[in-house]
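## retry 2 of 3
previous attempt timed out at serialization; input unchanged, resubmitting
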Amino acid sequence: MGALPRALLLPLLAQWLLRAAPAPAAAPFTLPLRVAGAASRGASLTPGPGTPAAPRADGLALALEPAGGAANFLAMVDNLQGDSGRGYYLEMLIGTPPQKLQILVDTGSSNFAVAGAPHSYIDGYFDTARSSTYRPKGFDVTVKYTQGSWTGSVGEDIVTIPKGFNGSFLVNIATIFESENFFLPGIKWNGILGLAYATLAKPSSSLETFFDSLVTQANIPNVFSMQMCGAGLPVAGAGTNGGSLVLGGVEPSLYKGDIWYTPIKEEWYYQIEILKLEIGGQSLNLDCREYNADKAIVDSGTTLLRLPQKVFDAVVEAVARTSLLYIQPMMGAGLNYECYRFGISPSTNALVIGATVMEGFYVIFDRARRRVGFAASPCAEIAGAPVSEISGPFSTDDIASNCVPAQSLNEPVLWIVSYALMSVCGVILLMLILLLLLPCRCPRRPRDPEVVNDESSLVRHRWK
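## retry succeeded, writing output
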């Protein structure tokens, strides 16, 4: 038994099939995507160094080895460990001399932060006093997530990624000195690598993100791809499942068949557009704007497939009606019990395609062309049988022309507006204070005896 991402159908539409034991059952999840043909596994890459390959007729471009051999994309294969329950993490060396840490890969945030002090749930932290290359920037930052938050001091130091890069890079890094529900029991990582856009970076988008620094300093293309090999495996928290994070390219050995792309609707999270959701081959028949309220994002740092409440309720009803099981096997709860969890949860603010779904696919975050791609992953198998597949295209005649509702002001814009209003209020308040404190030095003109002002009128009435 298990809730497994069964298939992604990506046309102009894409479809997820979740497999339930003992027999597979379809549950399509559709997205507006474009198809690109799979790369030939034996093809040689001939364009000049330091630039991505030119787009082929089928729309797919493979990243090349950057100039100077700073990166080795093939060496990045199998550089991740973890599971969908507690995240997938990458080994990094930070500071001088290098301190080895395991860093959670999160496409739903933008700050790079590591534990800066001991914590009961982690086995290591970054000691800035031991690094001769660490430079503080003199300010703190607080980052809040759907679950948990942390506060840290911002500085910069050199970072090395042993699997894939030959050199070190100077990056912004926050050292966490206070956290709440961020480091949890059983985790194997002690830092977080936010790979979303700078718009989400705290305290502001002016703080250069880790990946933006890497693109500039390593001279790699502005694209990364991720494979998480935990589909169908129990969530044990042991970090024994593998995966790959290819920073700067697309590795052909990590996918099979075609890559299907969907446009990035807005560059903050990796926001895409969901067109349709089907359970057991039957559409939920909801307005497609319900799927995108108030956004739909691809987030490796979220465990489950999270759906807006109205969509979640419709899914649960459809699942109960068709007797499908969307569950994942769990380990460690007890010796005499087999435990499972539901792979879908309700959400108050977004549809989130989390690790539960991403584990079935090789996901490409092509920032250079503002698109996210999905391809079938060779590691998404159980006993040699694949648990994910991709097919299409499909008609979109029955879909609304625009499934993304009008966006409310996002958080960075709200901060700007708030600061502007506070500045205006401050100026007005200062002017009022000055007017109250400064004596009036207005020149007095001789009074016209025939003119009666308020004061003289009051006096006259009083004496009368």
